[in-house]
Automatic annotation (TrEMBL):
Residues 103-306 form the Metallo-beta-lactamase domain. InterPro entries: Metallo-B-lactamas (IPR001279), RibonucZ/Hydroxyglut_hydro (IPR036866). This is Coenzyme PQQ synthesis protein B. It comes from Enhygromyxa salina. It comes from the Bacteria. The gene is pqqB. Gene3D superfamilies: Ribonuclease Z/Hydroxyacylglutathione hydrolase-like.
Length: 340
């Protein structure tokens, strides 16, 4: 039996779930099981007291935690203790007054990450929600960042025109490559180009503004996203080349930013025996901490996200984690929020 369908509100167990499920070998159905629901029949959550904010939906690198086929101590711990496991890195942006719920990146874990937003989304009662999100802001075409779009397609959520903002190269990539072109053709998603310098309005005075980031680009370029609200401004960069590869002045890019949520894939060079550190396509955490230590303070926080399963700071009792926290840095935690 398949798992829960993206956007379904009936979640206690697969047996109790009345939503549309597609079993292997069966033809998918295009007919929604739920009747169209009038706006007045939607279960509208109470307006949040906390105002516009972001919420962490996952902190793991593209492969997730536990990682496929791995029995390292961190993957083992994640298998035996769900509290140590994590979905792939993503953040939600919540605009409570406008009932807006956006996510940055559509990870392979998108369906359960939507469940983490049940308290702030407008829910369709008793069936599949064809518009489960206000929209998606994509960073790039590596597996952890966009494969979840498939959950919105014909065989799963059969979504109704969910807005997707991405770079021009990424929009072109989606429109011209299978299976993503089908989602575009069937209007499950509505991709739009987000130009660096331009902004997407998310409601409640929130805006998202893309920033071009250097990162391995076989299929598309890579964006970071400024997420700004009436109170604070965050910059989300889950994947980037080491800081030495930045042509843009990162310090200038951080002007007016109070929270940097940034690539914490690897902690240090010892983590990857046999690999030349200079060839690793990510800034090491130890380098990032050195680079931004002087910035830390009441007006600037740095949270690491997108941690590879090999990263020792995933273990809350590791000396590396203790050292990182003593220096004032933070490992992002699933469910943690930040007021924007
Ligand atoms: Zn990634
Ligand atoms: Zn592992
Ligand atoms: Zn990547």
């Amino acid at each position: 039996m398949g798992g829960l369908v993206v956007g379904c509100t009936v979640t206690p167990s697969p047996r109790d779930c009345a939503c549309e499920q597609v079993e292997p070998g069966l033809e998918p159905t295009t007919e929604p099981v739920a009747k169209p629901v009038a706006a007045s029949d939607r279960a509208v959550p109470e307006p949040a007291q906390l105002g516009p904010r972001l919420r962490i939906l996952g902190v793991a690198q593209d492969g997730g935690l536990p990682h496929i086929g791995c029995d390292c101590p961190r993957c083992d711990a994640a298998r035996s203790d769900p509290g140590r496991a994590s979905p792939v890195a993503s953040v939600a942006v919540i605009a409570p007054q406008s009932r807006g719920v956006w996510v940055v990146d559509a990870t392979p874990d998108l369906a359960r990450q939507l469940d983490m937003l049940a308290d702030v989304r407008e829910l369709v009662v008793g069936g599949v929600d064809r518009t489960p999100l206000s929209g998606i802001l994509l960073t790039h075409a590596h597996m952890g960042h966009y494969l979840g779009l498939a959950q919105l397609g014909y065989e799963a959520g059969s979504a109704d025109a969910v807005p997707v903002y991405a770079s021009a190269r990424m929009v072109e990539f989606l429109a011209t490559n299978a299976p993503w072109d089908q989602l575009v053709r069937l209007h499950n998603i509505e991709p739009s180009v987000a130009e660096p310098g331009g902004s997407v309005a998310l409601g409640d005075g929130l805006t998202a503004t893309p920033l071009l980031v250097p990162h391995r680009g076989e299929y598309t370029d890579t964006l970071g996203w400024y997420l700004a609200g009436p109170r604070k401004r965050a910059l989300y960069i889950p994947d980037t080349d080491p800081w030495a590869k930045w042509e843009l002045d990162i310090d200038a890019a951080l002007d007016g930013v109070q929270l940097l949520l940034v690539d914490g894939t690897f902690h240090d060079g010892d983590e990857l025996p046999g690999r030349d550190v200079s060839e690793i396509g990510h800034p090491l955490m130890v380098d990032t901490m050195e680079r931004f230590a002087d910035r830390l303070g009441p007006q600037f926080e740095l949270w690491f996200i997108h941690l590879n399963h090999s990263n020792p700071t995933l273990d809350p009792r590791s000396p590396q984690r203790r050292e990182l926290e003593q220096a004032g840095f933070v490992i992002a935690e699933v469910g943690r929020e930040y007021a924007l």
